[in-house]
Amino acid sequence: MQFDLTILGSNGAIPAHDRHPSSQILNYNGNLFLIDCGEGTQFRLNKFNIKRGKLDHIFISHLHGDHYFGLIGLLTSFNLNWRETPLHIYGPAALEEIMNVHFKHSQTQLKFQIHYHHISADEPRLIYEDEALEVETIILKHRLPTTGFYFKEKKGLRKILVEKIAEYKIQHKDITGIKKGADFTDENGRIIPNAELTTDPPAPRSYAYCSDTVFIESFVEQLKGVGLLYHEATFVDEHTARALETFHTTSRQAASVALQAKAQKLVIGHFSARYENLDLLLHQAREVFPETHLAIEGTVFQI
Ligand SMILES: [Zn+2]
Ligand SMILES: [Zn+2]
């Protein structure tokens, strides 16, 4: 089952050095989830050849422009391309108001429905669920109410051993129950324990997006064991005071979050425009958490 992340934009507030504002695409088995939608996101989708037909869910972390200024352009293009499929947008309540002002004054009649899901940044909540995946909010601490997003695969069904189906003459009607963990009673009334019939499902995979935030550890427990963690890393050590002042994080602090959360892999991004070269950001993070990677635009991370 495909589960990967494409970085579309990874710079902080000001686009610089050919880097663009925050935006990412998460692909789960062909379904696309857009996470933040900084200015120019639709051009980035084109550049990396990402088809929009399967994009039905957009998640916006907060209302600083570098995280949503691309939305009005993207939605307008959807409309011009005769999109009819409903679109779900998860974000702060005021986002709906902002979008409606644009559509009102441009006299735009949308051909598709937008369902806004208002997110509050008070406590983690389940905001999306389908048969395979769920999304929880992560409460971050920034100058505006801000949430991250925690994408978690649901635990799959147990794998039934093919040879046991023949051995115990298991009927088709019993298979689903056994995959869910039930024991099996054979034709002689003998109970075959589930453990003899099945093996464990693969461990669920997960991805957490944390941007923007000052260095906090309050969500570390929630993310324990996360597969891939994206954490903003706007500054290097030298600018730690500046990070605190502007409610951002250094790359070393981001690495400390990854370490405490026992993440498998860390991706850092939201780089300050003051750094053309990102080596020091990476180096300082890797001193704490060696499995750190830069969110270079166009990179695809497997989850
Ligand atoms: Zn930002
Ligand atoms: Zn911000």
Report on this model:
The relative contact order is 0.14. The protein is of the alpha/beta class and 303 residues long. It is globular, with a radius of gyration of 22 Å. It contains 9 helices and 18 strands. The protein starts with a strand and ends with a strand. Helices cover 23% and strands 27% of the residues. The strands form 4 sheets. It has a 7-stranded mixed sheet. It has a 7-stranded mixed sheet with strand order 7-8-9-14-15-16-17, with helices on one face. A two-stranded antiparallel sheet has the order 10-13. It binds zinc ion (ZN) (2 copies).
Break the fold down into its secondary structure elements and pairings:
Layout: E1 3-9, E2 23-28, E3 31-37, H1 41-47, E4 55-59, H2 71-80, E5 87-91, H3 94-105, E6 114-118, E7 126-129, E8 133-139, E9 147-153, E10 159-160, H4 162-167, H5 172-179, E11 184-185, E12 191-192, H6 194-197, E13 198-199, E14 206-210, E15 228-232, H7 240-245, H8 251-260, E16 265-269, H9 279-286, E17 292-294, E18 300-302
Parallel strand pairs: 3-4, 4-5, 5-6, 14-15, 15-16, 16-17
Antiparallel strand pairs: 1-2, 1-18, 2-3, 7-8, 8-9, 9-14, 10-13, 11-12
Helix pairs in contact: 8-9
